[in-house]
Please model this.
Amino acid sequence: MGLFGRSGRDGADGADGDGGYEDNAALTGVGGYEPADAPGFPAAGYGTGSPVSGKSAAEPAAEPGRGPWPAQGEKPGGTPWYAEDPAATGRAPRAEPQRIRPPSRPPARLKGRPSRALWILVAVIALGVAAMNFFGAARHHSASPSTPSQGPVTFQPEPHLVVPAVVDGWSSVAARDGSFAYDVPPSWTPEPGVVHGWDGTATSPGITLGTTASVGRGYCGSDSRHGGSGVTTEDGGNAEAAARKAVGDLVGSAYDPGAKVTYAPAQDATVQLEGLTRPARVVLADVTQGGTDACTQKHVTVGALALATATQSVVLVVYTDDTTSRADVVRLLQSYRGVPAADRTTTTPPPTTR
Model:
């Protein structure tokens, strides 16, 4: 914010600013008159007593009792009498100059602050209003009935498709429309509506999994789990390359960058889809991590099964520590299948009260 200045009108040019006029009576020849104490001169002309007449100004005889002049023939203040005498000048005496003052301006209206009495009145009114509001609210509160506590809320889950498992004792994890499914061991929890994964960074590729399941969630903190599974897609029609890339993306995103990764030879697999048997490839990798942190998983098995189409591959990925055996990882991957419409059942879970 810039500075601002006031116009320097008071005292800027040496004027006192007390009326806005100049005393012309103190300046010779200004205003059409001479100061009263200036030396007198005869009037213009050639009459008796004028400097050009050659006659003394004392020649005219003074009439007895006439003229207010002293005996010496001079007006008080040293002015010769003939300079003002009507007999000598032939005209009426000049009036004494008067100082003319401009009419006084009305005094400026004072802008005073409100009186103390006004402030006291405002304060009394404000206190009165506050008291009325307080006591009115108290009366309203005491008169109104207490708000009843909210009762339990009933929640109705949405209907979902149920697909039978093909591995005895295991649970199926089905797609939302029931078009495909896979099975997980009894200790795992199906979470078909959950999407989880890892965001990509400058040093990790990231991966996103849908139609998921998990095991040991929260074993070492809220975000920890012993293992998990889910479905993703990869570009390209090469099933083995798609499976290897998915394994590499998960290892690079979920585990320590210095972890040792050992890939096993790819295996053949088959998938039943729409009444047909389709070829697939399975890739497994062992991940070994160092460190002394109790939450660090020392050994992890990561596997993927890829089913290729002409331009894209669908990949089921699973990762787990030693709480799930390597054999169960392979069985989980090989349970991936298409589900005929006749095997899909829609069920509505019972309502729950919370």
About this structure: The first strand starts at residue 74 and ends at 75. DSSP finds four helices and 18 strands in the chain. Residues 116-143 form the longest helix (28 residues).
